[in-house]
Structure formats: structure tokens, C-alpha cells
Amino acid sequence: MKSAPASDLPFMDAFAAPSQEAWRAAVDKVLKGADFEKRLVGKTADDIRIEPLYEAASPALRPLRGEAGRWHVAVRLDHPEPAEAQKLALADLEGGADFLSIAFAGARAARGYGLVADDVAALDASLDGAMLDLIRLRLDPAPQGRVNALLLAALVEKRGLSPDTLTIDFGLDPIGLLASQGSLAAPWPEIGRRLADTVRALKARGFAGPFITADARPWHEAGASEAQELGAMLATAIAYLRALENEGFPLEEARDAISFVLVADTDEFLTIAKFRAARLLWQRVQQACGLSPKPMILHAETAWRSLTRRDPWVNLLRGTIATFSAGIGGADSLIVQPFTAALGLPDGFARRVARNTQLVLLEEANLWRVADPAAGAGSFEALTLALCEQAWGVLQGLEQRAADGLPGIVAALASGTVQADLAKQREARAKAIATRREPITGTSEFPNLKETPVAVLAVAPVGRPTPRTELRKASEQDQGDLIDQLAGGATRDAALSAPEDSVQAQALPSQRLAEPFEVLRDKADAAPQRPVVFLATLGPIADFTARAGFARNLFEAGGLSAPSGGGFAKDGVTDIAALVAACTASGARLACLCGSDAAYAAEGRAASQALTTAGATVWLAGRPGDMEAELNQAGVTSFIYAGGDVIEALTRAHAIVAA
């Protein structure tokens, strides 16, 4: 009887395992004296080191999803008109989705659109044909979120469904609304009372929840780093835990009432680590509260800030990476932003591609079949733990801001501390975007000036709902009675409460990373004719191709056409007269010299003088080095090179071509 092999891969035993020292010696040989740290070690926005090589880690027992198997394919119901919203929703459900996220008008996630439903009849029409006991529902946090929750509960009652057979996340998130819109509907103690009353009323009807959402999206859209996003999300959840506990809820019930929303971005490693860290951190919070930990309910959404309006087809790649990362990281459900979302309300095709992105990864790639694929991978384990440490520090910092009866996260928003911290992150990232250290494919790199437009629905934005002015105080309203009134046909105004003096804060901005480049592209597109930059190439084509390609890519990122031909070489030198004639014929006010260092030394001065005499402003592609003063004297006014501020250069270029 043969003995079992020592390894599943016995042939690997023939090779000696290399040591870290041997690997480092080989790397140093290749680097030839270059700085190891600068070349091979990266840093995250939280200053976490990303090493080029990690040793295998011993996987530890980690909190996983509460429900084994596939994550849920979610789509957003956000068309303003109930009948049209219903058609889109049914197409999504028939096409493989099993989770509807309802974004009422005014919801941040609706981006100026959102379902307009002032009564149960309108909400019922938007969900006509949807079997609510076979799918999952979630309300996106929105103004009048309490009323939206009561409307949905009233719809369930009207349809005669048993709440205990349904899975509904009611999405109440007043802190998220404070961050997004700059105010609470009432003082914080009153907000806690209203939350508790609404949760009690819904539980009394048989709904299991969750009822409250700790939503990280406002922080992410405002530029938060991974640790800031996690810390703010957890601080929000802790504020809700305390609010419900103060209103008499046992901590276990308060914990079970909360769900989470986290953003999946285009950095695969950090997104996977972030989702894994979120579960570890929530487990730690529960332990600190003396609770026996339960898995968090973790919804995911691909990043709004990574979407582009230019070359939106690249958003398909961004969405795929984010979907993969959220799935591997352990999301319970996921919404993929349709690739045209930054341009308007997505049509059926864009929605179909978004949900199919998930279905392909579920059904064909089978990503869901392993509970934690990253377990034991040194890089993911190290990043997960580093993010936990950083996020816990952010959480503690926010908790220390508690003052005047306000929880830490609310007090930090009211004082402007959060806004200042996020502004620093936005500034740092904006610099990385402007210098293309963080390139945006199709926007800052490899732009396409001949892109064809994509289709979106012809729907006008709807804005926020406007209630009537004479309203009852919230303390005079019984939530259970309101559900009955709404089920009987009352409008949402019956459930609104009178405004009260409340906490105010500077609203967090919602910014996409590509916006600075898109502003320049829009400016160029608005011109009667597309502005042109003349690429004044020196020497034979083999000598100028690299820098001409760099310059064309840079100028086209701002919408400026920069065609290059076969050059002006003649008998081994540049025909400067022909070059100047071509520049004049192009009508370009800006000319950019493109060539090798040797060509700049031999012909740069003469070419610049000739172009300047002909009336062109002259730039040069590349770093000038010792020739800078000489080239400046010859007429070169600016230099473009890798690592320079492209936004600043393009802004100046626009001013020149428009003069």
C-alpha cells in the first residue's frame, strides 16, 4: 500500500524555497542602485505600506457573512414616474436581480432623480408585479426617510402580506442626511426618540428589520480614505446603538436593527481588505459592548466617485473590478453603478449590463463558492489588519468629539472637524489626479476625442420633496396609526412632522475624480471648432514619436486636438521652414516642440525662434535640464513632462488657444 504524498503538489518539493534575503539580493541587482522604497513600496491614502512581496499568512478565524452562498444582485428603483420605474424594475428582476433598492426623490443615491410617490398607490404602482415575498427590498436613505418607511409598511399591509415573510431594510439614516444635506430634522435627542418610535412601530407590525443604516457613501464621495470611511461608518453605527439604548432598547435589539453600506472602489487590494476589515471592526465593537458578536449586514455599492462622463465605456471595467472586490471581500448584496450613471438616468441597456456584471462573476466565475478567498494571502491579511488599526484610530478620534449631548460623529460634523479632515484628503487626491500619478483611463490617459455619445433616459431631474407648512409635532404622531392612515389612502403629508431647531453642519461634497478634466473637455467641445495644438516635431519619426505621443495624450485630455504627422525631417535635419509653414496653416496659437534631447540641443533654439516669430506660443515636451535658460531665451515659455500638473498646464493651454 502506497503512502500518501507529502504534498498535494509533490513536484514542488524538487525546488528549494527561496528566502526573503535571496529575493532581495536579486531585486537589488535589477534595481542597479535605484531606491527600493521609491520604486517598489507603495503607500495608501492612510499611509499604509504596500510591500512588493508578502510571506504567506496563517488564516485566522474571521467573521464572515451571516448567510452562506451567493451575494444578492441588487438594482436601484429610481425613475421618478411609478409606471416607468415599474417597467425597469420588472426587467431587472426578470433578468436575474433579486434585490430592489428604492431611492425616493431627494435621496443622494438618486442623483437628482428618484421615485416620486406621495401615497401608497404610487408606491404600489412602482412595484406592481414584483412579488415582495420572493425578493429583498431596501430603502435608500433619503429626506423624509421615516415617512418612506411607513409608506412601505403601509403597502405591505395593503397587499395583505405577512411582514415576517419579507426581507426589508428600511434605510433610516439621519446622520447620513446630516452629512449629505447639512441639517437634522430635529435636535439629536428628538431624532433618537423618533428612530425608536419608528422601529417599535415596525417591529410591532412584524417586520424584522434592519431598520437603520450606517452609510459610508457620503464620506467616500467626499474624498474619504479607506480608514476614514470605515471609522465614520462605525461611529455612525455606535451613535445609533446609543440612541436606541437610551430609548429603552436592549443592546441586542439595537444591534440587530442596524445594517451597513460600504463602497467598492477600483483598487482591488484595498477594497477587499476594507470589506474584510469592516466585519472585524464591527465584531470588535460588539465585543466592547459586551455582546456575543453576530455577522454584520453589509450592502455594497460600486464607487460613484470613480465614474466618468468621458469614454463611459471604461466604467464597465471599473464596475467589474469593484464587483469582483466586493464579492471576494464578503458583501451580502451589491449595486453596480450603470456605466452611464454620471451622464443621466440609465436606460434599460445600461441597467442590464450592470446586473450582468454581477451575474457573470456569480454564475461563470463562481466567486461565491469560497467564503473568504483572501484568507492566508499575506498581502490581504496585512492590509486588512493595517486598515483595522487605522480605522479604529479614526473611530476613537471621532468618539472623543462627543459634546453637549451630541454623539462623536454628529459633534464632529457640527464643528467642521470631519469636513477639514476630508478636505485634506481631497486635496491630496486631486494633486495625484492632476499629475496623473492616479491615472483615469479614457479621461486623463488615452482620451478619445471621437467618442460616440451613449444613451440615457430623457427624464428631467425632480429635486427634493416640498412638504406643506402646517404640520403636527412628531410627539403628537402615533407611528402605528400613521401606517393605517397611509394604507387607507392618506398622502405622505399626513405623516410629516413640523420642523424643529436642529443640528447644522456644512454638507459634505459629492465629487467624482474625473470632474476637473471633464470641465476642460466641455470647454473645448463648446468652441465653434475644436481648438488645435500644433505638435512641432523635430527629426525623424523614430526620434519624436514617444514625446509626440505623450504631448498628444496630454492635450487631448483637455479636449484639445493635437494631430501629428510623419514629421519634417529632410536630409537628416528638420526642415524648419516647412515646420513653421505647417504650424501657420493649422491656425494653432500654441505649438509644442517634440523630439529627442539631442534634437532639442541641435535644433530646439532655432525652431522655437522661428515659431515665435510666426506668432505661436511655444512649449516643449520634456524636462529641459541644463538647456532651460537657453530655450526660454529662444521663446519656449513652458515645459510639459511626466509628473507635472496636467490640469494647470491644460488650463493655461486653453487660455492661449482661446486668445
Which helices and strands, and how do they pair?
Elements: H1 20-31, H2 36-40, E1 42-43, E2 49-50, E3 72-77, H3 82-94, E4 99-102, H4 120-126, E5 136-139, H5 145-159, E6 167-169, H6 174-181, H7 188-204, E7 212-215, H8 217-221, H9 226-246, H10 251-256, E8 258-264, H11 268-288, E9 298-302, H12 314-329, E10 333-335, H13 348-364, H14 378-399, H15 408-415, H16 417-434, H17 479-487, H18 515-525, E11 533-537, H19 541-556, E12 569-570, E13 573-574, H20 576-586, E14 590-594, H21 597-613, E15 617-621, H22 628-634, E16 636-640, H23 646-657
Parallel strand pairs: 3-4, 3-10, 4-5, 5-6, 7-8, 8-9, 9-10, 11-14, 14-15, 15-16
Antiparallel strand pairs: 1-2, 12-13
Helix pairs in contact: 3-4, 4-5, 5-7, 5-17, 7-9, 9-11, 9-14, 11-12, 11-14, 12-13, 18-23, 20-21, 21-22
What keyword list fits this structure?
Rossmann fold; single chain; 659 residues; alpha/beta; TIM Barrel; eight-stranded parallel β-sheet; four-stranded parallel β-sheet
Description of the structure:
- This protein is α/β, with parallel strands linked by helices and 659 residues long.
- The protein has 2 domains: 72-434 and 466-495, TIM Barrel, CATH 3.20.20.240; 515-657, Cobalamin-binding domain (Rossmann fold, 3-Layer(aba) Sandwich), CATH 3.40.50.
- Helices cover 45% and strands 10% of the residues.
- It contains 23 helices and 16 strands.
- The strands form 4 sheets. Strands 6-5-4-3-10-9-8-7 form an 8-stranded parallel beta sheet. It has a 4-stranded parallel beta sheet with strand order 11-14-15-16, with helices on both faces. Strands 1-2 form a two-stranded antiparallel sheet.
